[in-house]
Amino acid sequence: QVHLVESGGGLVQAGGSLRLSCAASGRFFDIYSTAWFRQAPGKEREFVAAHDRSTNYADSVRGRFTISRDLSTISLQMNRLKPEDTAVYYCAADRDLVRDYTSPTKYNYWGQGTQVTVSS
After folding, report:
1. Which of 1 and 38 is assigned the larger pLDDT?
2. Burial of residue 109, with CB atoms counted within 10 A of its CB: 0-12 exposed, 13-18 middle, 19 or more buried
């Protein structure tokens, strides 16, 4: 079993930066694929970034966000934030290579989410 806990969310002005962290416990060394998703009120959960053999980003965040991973943490560095980045951000993980990394249904482990609010 793997447990994920996000932190680092908050309120920031447009143009600012935040760094989200997702602390993992349990059998994290078994994890192959990791990702960040976000969900705004009234919208479906959407893909933000993925990290396995390579990194991949949603078009809306490419060049502004960076996903990284070390032995026990999945991080998301968010720069040049925009009001439309406002959402609850979730980290996700799976033991297998997730080929359809943009689909939230492909990941078995999830954190509880952290709120990011970007003011204009």
Report:
1. 38
2. buried
Asked if residue 73 has pLDDT above 80, the reply is: yes
Q: What are the start-end ranges of the H helices in 1-120? A: none
Torsion of CA 114, 33, 60, 18, to 10 degrees: 40
**pLDDT for the residue 25:** 87
| Lookup: tokens for 38 | 């976000």
Dihedral (Cα; 91, 93, 97, 103), 10-degree rounding = -50
Helix, strand, coil % over all residues of the chain, rounded to 5: 10, 50, 40
Buried b or exposed e, range 51-86, using 16+ CB within 10 angstroms = bbeeeebbeebeeebbbebeeebbbbebeebeeebb
- Residue 118: HSE in the Cβ half-sphere, 13 Å Cα cutoff: 18
Phi, psi of 110 (to 5 degrees): -135, 150
pLDDT score recorded for residue 71: 85
